[in-house]
TrEMBL record:
It comes from the Bacteria. The keyword Lipid biosynthesis does not apply. Residues 2-250 form the ABC transporter domain. It comes from Candidatus Pseudothioglobus singularis PS1. InterPro entries: AAA+_ATPase, ABC_AA/LPS_Transport, ABC_transporter-like_ATP-bd, ABC_transporter-like_CS, BCA_ABC_TP_C, P-loop_NTPase. Keywords: ATP-binding, Nucleotide-binding, Transport. This is Branched-chain amino acid ABC transporter ATPase. One of its GO terms (molecular function) is ATP hydrolysis activity. The keyword ATP-binding applies. GO terms for cellular component: plasma membrane. Pfam families: ABC_tran, BCA_ABC_TP_C.
Length: 258
């Protein structure tokens, strides 16, 4: 689904991403882990079109998308979420979802005069879609709540819901579990698994919670100093001496052997 070849991003003399080759299989949930400063977020920003690479290629579903912007990639079904959720705080959950699809008729001032009926029909269809999405994610009880009143975990669920409004193909999740309580984290994990299994979503996720990664991801790719250190199953990663030294800490190996 996504292949990056010799991908690099330099900021002055700093090589944030340095000659990375990576393949994300269609239908997979791939984990991307590593210490702070490893280049994970820069990698996401490159794939999502927020940064242009210093060198290298990005291939999406067989197409070279290296020079495309995030807006253009959005229309190709590649979406990126952020560690801090972005929402319209004064709008309800449903209204937030209805804002997602691009090129709506009501966005054109002339259409508000000439195509009122079509706009009304489009809004009804969008509301029906939004209702279906919140039901799928088990957040119907929040649909009329202002998004600004949601907890951090609920906002992460809203971000997942937004990806469903455009039938995303690939979703890049940036620390979806950060600051989320265990109950909501399980709900978010359940939603990701359902989207993967029932809707065919491909995910790549940056995450520091190895228990969460272990539940969801295979393979797991470890980034360190802008390069791929290793990749494998969660168990292989947790027992790798190189990973323990670079990232996980000495205690994890003892834990993994019990």
């Amino acid at each position: 689904m996504i292949t990056v070849k010799n991908l690099s991003k330099h900021f002055g003399g700093i090589k944030a991403v340095d000659g990375v080759d990576l393949h994300i299989d269609k239908g997979s949930i791939t984990g991307l882990v590593g210490p702070n400063g490893a280049g994970k977020t820069t990698m996401f920003n490159l794939i999502a079109g927020l940064y242009q690479p210093t060198e290298g290629e990005i291939i999406l579903d067989g197409e070279d998308v290296t020079e495309l912007t995030s807006h253009q990639l959005f229309h190709k079904g590649l979406l990126r979420t952020f560690q801090i959720a972005h929402e319209f705080p004064t709008l309800s959950v449903l209204e937030n979802l209805m804002m997602v699809p691009a090129n709506q008729l009501g966005e054109n001032l002339m259409n508000t005069w000439l195509k009122r009926k079509q706009i009304h029909e489009e809004e009804k269809a969008l509301q029906a879609k939004a209702e279906e999405v919140v039901d799928f994610l088990s957040i119907s009880h929040l649909k009329n709540e202002s998004a600004g009143n949601l907890s951090g975990g609920q906002k992460k669920l809203l971000e997942l819901a937004r990806t469903m409004m455009v039938d995303a193909k690939v979703v890049l999740l940036d620390e979806v579990g950060a600051g989320v309580n265990r109950t909501l984290l399980k709900q978010i994990g359940d939603a990701i698994i359902r989207l993967n299994e029932e809707r065919g979503y491909t995910f790549c996720m940056i995450e520091h919670d190895m228990d969460f990664i272990s539940r969801l991801c295979d393979p797991v790719v470890v980034l360190a100093e802008g390069q791929i250190l290793t990749s494998g199953t969660p168990d292989e990663i947790k027992s790798s001496d190189a990973v323990i030294e670079a990232y996980l800490g000495k205690g994890i190996k003892t834990e993994a052997t019990h």
